[in-house]
Amino acid sequence: MAAVREKLRVGVVGLGIGRMHIDGWREHEGVEVVAIADADAARLAQVGERYAIEARFASAEAMLAAGGLDVVSICTPNKFHKALTIAAFEAGAHVLCEKPMAMNAGEGRAMLAAARRAGRRLMINFSYRFSAASRGLKAQVDAGVFGDFYFGRTVWHRRRGMPGFGGWFGQKALAGGGPLIDLGVHRLDLALWLMGYPRPTWVLGSTHDPIARPLAAASGKAFDVEDLAAALIRFDNGATLVLETSWAAHIQEAELMETRLLGTKAGLLQKNLNEGYSFDAHIFTEQHGAQLDVHLHPPAAPARSAMHDFAAAILADLPHPAPGEQGLVVMELLDAIYDSARRGEPVRIGP
Ligand SMILES: NC(=O)c1ccc[n+]([C@@H]2O[C@H](COP(=O)([O-])OP(=O)(O)OC[C@H]3O[C@@H](n4cnc5c(N)ncnc54)[C@H](O)[C@@H]3O)[C@@H](O)[C@H]2O)c1
Prior knowledge:
Elements (H helix, E strand, L loop, with lengths): L7 E6 L4 H8 L5 E7 L3 H11 L3 E3 L2 H7 L4 E4 L6 H10 L3 E5 L6 H14 L3 E4 L6 H11 L6 E10 L13 H4 L3 H17 L4 E9 L3 H7 L9 E8 L4 E7 L8 E9 L2 E7 L6 E9 L2 E6 L10 H11 L7 H20 L3 E2 L3
Parallel strand pairs: 1-2, 1-4, 2-3, 4-5, 5-6, 7-10
Antiparallel strand pairs: 7-11, 8-9, 8-15, 9-10, 11-12, 12-13, 13-14
The structure holds nicotinamide-adenine-dinucleotide.
């Protein structure tokens, strides 16, 4: 009889979005969330009660020192991703780190080096890949429906969606940047993933801050990041991608998420419905002299969480989705966009 494998024992650090990690881990029957950590005692108690998790720690360090964890979710503000990820590897765990991977690409490289030293896995929670609409489109991409992608536009704009002034999201020292590093990472990863992660070579970026900073200053609260960023990215296969993202812009929609990719045989559109957080997927093509619009009927594919798929990959000893190496490509692009915006000229990436 085959040996019954014990459940993966998971610890979650940071209980804001970390609560959704607990829900996500619980989708897989081979996983048990056994420990949580948060510096906020009230949040720690509330989440511990809600999920009946006994092992509660005031710091990630204390949780890791207690030992016995196979996987750790890092869900703290961006500034702490690197140190806590490395500490988790040193404690022998695999890591699912929230996006953005880190504050910059240098930190991302240090995290990957630590993963290699420990012989453990690093996955980044690019959660928008895991929706039914995204998975459905990816299956069509893998089946060759689109030919070669040569142009794309990937967008996440908010009319007035700044996080509360004074919090960590609006402070460069804690977040690393504004909507580009917060929202842009998701739409950038989604486009790159569908395109097959081509290698970026040139970036022209710009950032602007006409709306949020004056409002924050008027309220006397800290806020020193952009409220809009845009970029034109060129890849070594000749493709180009436009990225646009904002927390504040004079636009019609409260929340607009859209990724369009044009391929030699067909184009795709993944967009949010009714300015909310459910998604639709379309394919546009030409057949027998007719222009066709194909709507992926929902659910296009089962929507499972990133946590579910990470657990399944670890348990089956298969490659996991959204690996740290792809998170690093995104970080290199973000660094280049901010650098290009600062310098006012295109920036070359890589050799
Ligand atoms: N994938 C997504 O769609 C998504 C959505 C929201 C947030 N995020 C990411 O998740 C991370 C957290 O964001 P959030 O919205 O949950 O923030 P948050 O401020 O709501 O929660 C962060 C929590 O971490 C705790 N914390 C901070 N430092 C800690 C430490 N050293 N040890 C233990 N606990 C610590 C805080 O007390 C707080 O409860 C960020 O990196 C953010 O970009 C991702």
